[in-house]
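Structure (tokenized):
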């Protein structure tokens, strides 16, 4: 690693590019200056410099590939994290909605049970001897029971959706682990000489 004037190390890409520029300048100077001198030695030097230049170009290409791969991997991980957070938030919202519906169903069921077990307290119309109060009382109990069933069914549907989403997430997670294991097995490295 080459040190700058401020005694800080340069990054690898800057060093490689500087080395490439220096090699190109040397190659240009050699082809411009020594046209009549020892041709055989000059050809060997040029060949060596071209080989060095090819190695530096390959290193630059590999460094660029590594940098792009790293950035893409970071982006993929960030997207996966955002997707996982969104999925967790969705699961929490479904669970909260399910609890709300279950609680509402139970409150309606308890309301109907309370009206059945204490009919005199619920309506003063029962003391008046009117049959209209009895009809209202029965219709209120029926309405509470129907609402309880409705909320119970809605809670069951939300629970089924939540459980299906959890099962789907588990299947996808298993498939992803399987694919990742296969990817690690089949990963190849191309080495150019």
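Design, position by position:
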């Amino acid at each position: 690693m080459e040190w700058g004037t401020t005694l800080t190390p340069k990054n690898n890409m800057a060093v490689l590019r500087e080395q490439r520029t220096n090699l190109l300048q040397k190659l240009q100077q050699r082809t411009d200056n020594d046209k009549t001198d020892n041709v055989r030695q000059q050809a060997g030097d040029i060949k060596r410099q071209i080989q060095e230049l090819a190695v530096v170009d390959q290193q630059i290409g590999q460094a660029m590939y590594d940098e792009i791969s790293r950035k893409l991997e970071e982006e993929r991980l960030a997207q996966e994290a955002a997707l996982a957070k969104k999925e967790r938030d969705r699961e929490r919202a479904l669970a909260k909605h399910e609890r709300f519906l279950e609680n509402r169903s139970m409150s309606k069921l308890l309301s109907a049970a309370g009206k059945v077990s204490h009919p005199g307290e619920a309506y003063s119309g029962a003391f008046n001897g009117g049959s209209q109060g009895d009809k209202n009382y029965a219709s209120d109990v029926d309405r509470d029971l129907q609402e309880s069933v409705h909320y119970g069914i809605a809670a069951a549907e939300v629970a089924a959706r939540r459980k299906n989403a959890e099962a789907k997430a588990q299947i996808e997670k298993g498939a992803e682990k399987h694919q990742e294991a296969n990817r690690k097995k089949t990963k190849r490295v191309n080495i150019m000489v």
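Reviewer-requested clarification: The radius of gyration is 39 Å. The mean pLDDT is 78.
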